[in-house]
Amino acid sequence: MRNLKERAVRGAFAKLCGQAVNFALRLGFTIVLARFLDPADFGLVAMVTAITGLYAMFASGGLSAATIQKEEITNEQISTLFWVNILLGMIFGLLSLVTAPILVWFYQEPRLFWLTVAISVGFLIGAAGIQHSALLERDLRYFAVTIIGAFSQLLGIAVGVGMAIGGFAYWALVGATTVSTAAGTACVWLTVAWIPGRPERAVGVRSLLHFGGTITLNGLIVYVAYNLEKVLLGRFWGADALGIYGRAYQLVNMPTENLNSAIGGVAFAALSRLQNEPARLKNYFLSGYSLVASMTIPLTLFGAIFAEDTILVILGPKWNAAATIFRLLTPTILIFGIINPIYWLLISIGLQVRSLKVAMVIAPLVMTAYIIGLPYGPNGVALAYSAAMTLWLIPHVVWCLHNTGVSPWDLVRAISRPLTSGILAASCVLSFEHYLDQLPSAILRLAIGGAVMFSLYLCILLFVFGQKTFYRDLLRDLLRRLPEGAEPAAGWTEGPV
Fold first, then answer.
1. d(Cα 70, Cα 113) in Å, to the nearest integer?
2. Model's pTM, two decimal places?
3. Which residues pair with 492 in a beta bridge?
4. N or C: the chain end with fewer CB closer than 10 Å?
């Protein structure tokens, strides 16, 4: 497809900028609320969202991915998918209401009832914007996606901070999420300017529903696997322990979540357009994979080295217990940085069933690890989780890449230079860590240690290992101006609305 590379690179840049803003806003929000709220406040909300997050996956139905992945899609099909999303949003909003008294009984915590009721409102609001967002991503309109995401998040954060300052405690978290969701839905409607038609039968949505259903089932299994420990910690160790674990878990996952959101959406849309061109698909995938690895590796090592100072600066002294959990979870930053891009590849070429089978193996593995670590509290769960994911890494890569045109050795070559550069840079920082410990301020230690480590990393990666050309070419593609009249990337045939 003409101009796909330039559009994908520019889209990825827009998403990266958006996720950088997203990261800064989320980090700032966490810093502020950690000073106004107690660990138990975060723990109460986590008790609810561990379950309602599961419902949210069903409410989307995987239908946004189906819209993006389909090579050709009609207005009638998208309209039908829109109304399916609305129906799912209503069903799972009502199910959330039914769940409220069950959560109160399970956790023995009456405050969860109205929390669950309030959160249920977001299901229908979010469902109304799923297909509009998918159309933006299908057309690689990531500058619009970035602006909408930043604006809606900023609005939600402003409401949340105001509620926290006003003494609304855990309700500040609910208010921020609800307002952000509503603003995002309103903005995508205004941006796409598409009004869905009536749902139609016999318009060829069965394959889309099947694709979306497989994606949803995959996401369901993965979600349960990666969130069961929060339910167990909340039930057996209480809201305080869950709040501390949850904040450490969130901070550890912020880098990979933002990178996956920034590059993953663009990669999925671009790779889906190339599913019938294996050579170009492999080249695009490995380029994106190298970019993700080059960002993930230094963040992993930095988090492991400066865990205590990171927690002290971001959350404050009353969260010191989160530092050990944070360090124990840092290996998962690298592991998810390695395995998440493979998911984009599998889904884009229609191997969603294989991804589902992989998820069905991951789930019992990590669940068993949680149970082993649970008697030792949050620290034991974090250690067991990281150990299980580390042991699973190589089998995961080999299985997923089988007969895809990309080999495990291709990934080794893509990751070897960033990994070696990161290890060398981290070793240099560790060699003078004693001198950093003499500095009076945690912020100063993070600033100096981070500046030295990332400067060394870039010098080794770009000049010693000769990666300057690769990143220069990416920058050139980013700055290259697209010709007038470049066609939409979607194959979306718009009919009368």
1. 40
2. 0.71
3. 73
4. C
